[in-house]
């Protein structure tokens, strides 16, 4: 799906032609009669459809996103047409388009009216591309779900940058979302499952017969009547506040059991380490505070940047290695920098979107 450097010029030269082709009308319109006709006539076996349909949906969503590019070139169109000439591929692409059209009519997920438009009515190209990628996940789940059963749609909860949000779950448990966090909750008759997509959350789990499990990048934390926090990232951190949790690679009943005041770190390469922490300090963010105990300035800045759209950047490597301790208001970047000046040889260049720290002398 490579594009040539002269793509923009190419589009200008083709401006008097019907481009894209008349059968290829982009987002919001699905009146395509080329390869789709053969698909409707059933020129492929249903067995083949079910065997590889999820993969075709994934590819179709990638094509959909690719076709939203403003500098689309002729080579890409030809490559797409070749792929779509397979009736099963054409049907998968129509499924992506049809689903997006339904969502567009309901207004679900539609951006603010201030979004960009173009002459062909191609609205919200970035939104359409992103939604296609999200949508295909749901379509693949449906495609793989056992026949005769209704697929379970997770409840999704999100906190914005700098926001702390408390959520009450159906079983009586509560979850507090730290800044920029997303969880997906699926409760069934046999289990209570939560996926931590990104960010950090504190779980206060209600007692119950069904296991309560939190999955973070394949690392499953099972509550054994407890309060604990989980933070996603390159290193997954599980901190036990009270009660007991079991942390393992999957929901298999095996894994490491933590005690209150312990934090398990699971690194990207699979290494694990358990260390003693102060649970109150780790969860201080609930009160809008960030606490550091002898961490490098680089680590402290990375943490402060989680809470604000104003980014702090360290221009000096030696300065980044300086140690920092203290409690600071989350999201208050200027206040944090002013505090640093009291005990570090540092000066700051402040702009609307960035604060640059440099060593003095």
Spatially, the strands of the biggest sheet line up as 1-4-5-7-8-11-12
Largest sheet: 7 strands, mixed
Give me the secondary-structure category. alpha+beta
> Which ranges are low-confidence, i.e. pLDDT below 50, for 5 or more consecutive residues?
1-50, 101-129
Shape descriptor reads flat
Supply Rg: 25 Å
Number of helices: 10
**N-to-C SSE string, H for helix and E for strand:** HHHHHHEEEEEEEEEEEEEEHEHEHEHEE
Span between termini: 51 Å
Helix fraction by DSSP (H/I, runs of at least 4) = 25-40%
Strand-residue fraction? 25-35%
Query: In total, how many beta strands?
Result: 19
Mean pLDDT: 76
Total domains, how many? 3
Could you describe the 3D structure shown?
The protein is 31% helix and 27% strand. The strands form 4 sheets. The protein has a 7-stranded mixed sheet with strand order 1-4-5-7-8-11-12, with no helix packed on it. Strands 2-3-6-9-10-13-14 form a 7-stranded antiparallel sheet. A 3-stranded mixed sheet has the order 16-19-18. The N and C termini lie far apart (51 Å). It has 3 domains: 7-144, no CATH class; 155-281, Jelly Rolls, CATH 2.60.120.1440; 288-359, Phage tail protein beta-alpha-beta fold (3-Layer(bab) Sandwich), CATH 3.55.50.30. By secondary structure, the chain is an alpha+beta fold. The protein has 10 helices and 19 strands.
Write a brief caption for the model.
With 361 residues, the protein is an alpha+beta fold. The chain contains 10 helices and 19 strands.
Topology:
Elements (H helix, E strand, L loop, with lengths): L6 H7 L21 H6 L5 H21 L7 H11 L2 H20 L18 H20 L10 E4 L6 E4 L5 E4 L4 E6 L4 E7 L1 E5 L7 E5 L2 E5 L3 E5 L4 E7 L2 E4 L7 E3 L3 E5 L5 E5 L2 H4 L6 E8 H9 L5 E4 L2 H4 L2 E7 L3 H11 L2 E5 L3 E6 L2
Parallel strand pairs: 5-7, 16-19
Antiparallel strand pairs: 1-4, 2-3, 3-6, 4-5, 6-9, 7-8, 8-11, 9-10, 10-13, 11-12, 13-14, 15-17, 18-19
Helix pairs in contact: 3-5, 3-6, 5-6
